[in-house]
Design brief:
By secondary structure, the protein is α/β, with parallel strands linked by helices. It has a single domain, classed as TIM Barrel, CATH 3.20.20. An eight-stranded parallel beta sheet has the order 7-6-5-4-3-2-1-8. Strand 1, helix 1 and strand 2 form a beta-alpha-beta unit. Helix 3 runs parallel beside helix 4. The longest helix is centred in the first third of the chain and has 16 residues. It comes from Hymenobacter gummosus. Belongs to the CutC family. InterPro entries: CutC-like (IPR005627), CutC-like_dom_sf (IPR036822).
Length: 236
């Protein structure tokens, strides 16, 4: 069925290429997934933009950890957004909370303004909001195009009841995009149980032992075959 889309979270150049090769509709480009992802380097953004024909959304997150940002950190985020615009990226992915875990509307308005015409995805900072129904209205009021969420649970399959409620509440005003735990084995259940139309997955294959670095740590790359299987199951 048309209209369903797969966004792949790519944390390297190789993963970005694999996402496109597998048929992903869009990528979210980041680095350091082991700590939840941060803004990728200028060089990575530029080279991915040069090589890919599918839309590239860039994660705007200056550091790992919580989503309450200082004025200096927000200035860095604005500068990164401006850089993404200059490089011709298709959109940005961001989120700022206040100390109570609510959407920091004023801070997010600054960043959305910096994005200008670029579509904005509100990322999984949303899952730390204690009142997701109120948070969704804030995200809609900001003019975001979509919100990435696992329904407040560790994985989207575990958060299905909340995801379905959010999709109903959104009523087409924003796309509720399930993410976390989306695999070929789970994507149909999440699709059918949530009513969502867009889905987010890292689509990673196994870690290749030879790829381990100096400290014996390696992140699995996106696997084009896994991406293709996810796309196939979405189209069933």
């Amino acid at each position: 069925m048309s209209g369903r889309q797969l966004e792949v979270c790519a944390a390297s150049f190789a993963s970005a290429l694999a996402a496109e090769a597998g048929g992903a509709h869009r990528i979210e480009l980041c680095q350091n997934l082991a700590q939840g992802g941060i803004t990728p380097s200028y060089g990575l953004i530029r080279e991915v933009r040069r090589q890919l024909s599918i839309p590239v959304f860039v994660l705007i997150r200056p550091r790992p950890g919580h989503f309450v940002y200082s004025p200096a950190e927000r200035a860095i985020m604005r500068a990164d957004i401006e850089q993404c615009r200059a490089l011709g990226c298709a959109g940005v992915v961001l989120g700022v909370l206040d100390a109570a875990g609510r959407v920091d509307v004023a801070a997010c308005q600054e960043l959305v303004a910096a994005a200008g015409p670029l579509p904005v995805t509100f990322h999984r900072a949303f899952d730390e909001c204690p009142d997701q129904a109120a948070a969704l209205e804030d995200v809609i009021g900001l003019g975001c195009q979509r919100v990435l969420t696992s329904g407040g649970q560790p994985t989207a399959p575990a958060g299905l009841p909340r995801l379905a409620a959010l999709v109903r509440q959104a009523a087409g005003r924003v796309s509720v995009m399930p993410g976390a735990g989306i695999s070929p084995a789970t994507i149909r259940a999440v699709l059918e149980g949530s009513g969502a139309r867009e889905f987010h997955s890292s689509a990673r294959g196994p870690v290749v032992p030879a790829a381990r670095g100096l400290f014996g740590v390696a992140e699995a790359e996106t696997d084009a075959a896994v991406v293709a299987e996810l796309v196939r199951r979405l189209a069933e």
